[in-house]
From TrEMBL:
Annotated SUPFAM superfamilies: Periplasmic binding protein-like II
Name this polypeptide is given: LCP family protein
UniProt record similarity statement: Belongs to the LytR/CpsA/Psr (LCP) family.
Limits of the SsuA/THI5-like domain: 104-190
UniProt KW keywords: Coiled coil, Membrane, Transmembrane, Transmembrane helix
Lineage: Bacteria, Bacillati, Bacillota, Erysipelotrichia, Erysipelotrichales
Transmembrane portions of the chain: 15-32, 44-64, 76-93
InterPro entries attached to this UniProt entry: LytR/CpsA/Psr_CW_biosynth, LytR_CpsA_psr, SsuA/THI5
Stretches assigned to coiled coil: 200-227
A Pfam family this chain is assigned to: NMT1
PANTHER family: POLYISOPRENYL-TEICHOIC ACID--PEPTIDOGLYCAN TEICHOIC ACID TRANSFERASE TAGU (PTHR33392:SF6)
Domain Cell envelope-related transcriptional attenuator residue range list: 246-408
Species this protein is from: Amedibacillus dolichus
Amino acid sequence: MENEQKKKRYYRRTIDLMFLFVLLIVYIYAFYKAFNFSMLPDKYVFMALMVAAVIYLILFVLALQRYPTWFVVIKRIFIVLLCALLGTVGFFLRKVESTTEKIATVNSTAQTKLFILTRSDSNIDSIEDLQGAVIGYQNGSDVASATYMKNLIENEVSGTQAYDYLDYTSLYSFLTNGQIDALAISEQYYGMTKATQEGFDEKVKTIHTFEKEAEQVENKIDVTEDVFTVYISGIDDAGSPDQMARTDVNLLMIVNPKNNHVDMVSLPRDGYIPNPALNGFNDKLTHTSLHGIQNSITSIEDFVGIPIDYYARISFTSVAQIVDAVGGIDIDVELSVCSYDESQNRTHDELESHEGQEVVCAQQGENQHLNGAQALVYARHRKTEGYGTEGRERAQRRVIMGVINKLLSLNALTYINNLLEVAPNFIITNMPSDQITSFINHQLSDFQPWTIHSLISDSGINDRQQVASLSTENGPYDVYLFSQEEIHEIMNAYDGAKKLMQLKDFSFDLDNLYENTPAISDDPNLVWSSMSGVVY
């Protein structure tokens, strides 16, 4: 009888030690991920490790003692739950890391994949079959990857014809309708196109995959210490944000990480500025993006006089997706708006015909709770007389502020998983992934509330002028003429953040308020609000 009890105790202890061994493996996995996860400050990881070590020691001691069966069962259930929790944490950390790399068009990963696509019914099944084929290459935001693939293909296959175009969305359409035979596309944009194009897997196939060493980008800016500027570009078309489309949203975020302050500058879409892609002739700001995101950045930098360090680009579809991902937003709604639901991925023809679309309304009032579809309807409305483009831009700022407030709230962690699902498909940025992680790590290390100050371009005037992108026969067109004062205000915000001026050092001359401000552009082609009334 005594021997039988000893066997039971031995058997029970062996099972407990096996449970602890599995827990140890999970510990190693989870904390390996945590220590290599650069977003998490080391002090938090060490604290968690200490707590985990104490728990493990207690469980180990308990495994060596005799306890009632019910206690042993509870202990084992606790170990299983702890394993599940730590395993989930490890998986989640890897998911965050992967998502950050996907949305960053510039990252520090060792390798990236490049794909060659053809139509599913095509006779082209391998790279050798590309002889004489017309291959589409993107020569916009992903031109480096396209050039790399073009050189590889031309070295392996003779007689191919290159078809260059500015965006992958159009190139994918050219592929599926037979205008080109194959499409060369990088890994990031492959995933984005797959997520935004209906029937992707049925319409195309991958015939070859290249691997490319990712370029290591030298970061000249320390986003934890230096002032930096982010250009947020929101295009007015559905689908992938890599499209060369007009921009509805043009925001500059002047970020001061030392003082936890952001100056958010809203630039009117109809702002009248020189377009570098059209020999510097004046155009609407919204049209500059038709020649690529870098063209918009150059035009804004030259006009406003401050550098733009990074950009983040979204498509209007993502507004609804992101708002839903954070559980909706609470904002003031200036007027009641009803329109068709455009929040889902649909073809252009379906959006134009409103096929399968429901009517969505946003009700006027303070602190209204809006879901994604309602926020999109409100952010895009401009038809009401007296509301127009200016009203829409106010609504867009409110929606963006609503999302930012949600992300800065104490409940932000509950939204992260949802954001990780949608972000890679609808957001692209050229901020390197290591800069993103450094910024988040810095904020988590010493979390302080942020202040946000809005700078609104409203001291200029609406006018009618010819624009470089449109025919003069149908002009002049509605534009917004900036005042020199509002440009000075933007430059002051950036210059003040860079200098980190202390109050004791602050001084100004009432006779020359802009004495310490960098001079605005002296381009003779610029048309200011004081020059309105004459078509230039």
